[in-house]
Amino acid sequence: MSYLPKQERDSGHNPLFTTLKNLLILGQWEAANQETITLMLQLANRSEDGWLWPEDFSRLPRPALKILNQLWVQHSCGRFGFSVQQRFWQKVGGLQADDPYLAECRLGDAVGWRHLDGTWLTYSQIQFAANAPRGHLPLAFAWWVEDGGIILGGLGKFWQMVVEGDLATPGPEANVIELPR
To answer: pTM for this structure?
Structure first.
């Protein structure tokens, strides 16, 4: 386990997140989204596979999710981040939904991941821009299928984990984040 000096405990100084921070500062939203996916895969020890299964979400260290969220929220002026998406998820009744897919569709509608006709956006239709709908990014837990549409997987499990942990601010434990070996 690596311990960082006290002055490097916040997300702005944790070297694991430097690339993401720089991409967000530059407004390179698509590259920042990809870096977020890369970090989540590394943190869950799933880089070789290239995707996360819903059961992998529990492997993601909460301090790391807090930092990822904080960086997105800070550098998008509050437009993007997991906590922004979390508020939409709660608003559409995601955690209490009898039909998880219906809740995912409602979230997709709320954050602009679906067309008005109810079909999912293709990757090329995702708005990697500062004026994208609130909560549109990051899109870090989707699969792209042959016809190009999005399949969201395990959102209920992800948001349950997120809701159980406060993503608002990284705590002092953020100084001990390291990649799995």
So the answer is: 0.80
